[in-house]
Amino acid sequence: MRSKYIIGGIIILGFTIWAALSFNASLTPYVSISEAKQSDNVVQVKGERVDSGHFDVNTNKFVFKIRDENGEVLQVVFDGAKPGNFEQASYVVCVGKYENGVFHARELLVKCPSKYQAEESDL
Question: What is the model's pTM?
Answer without folding.
Answer: 0.69
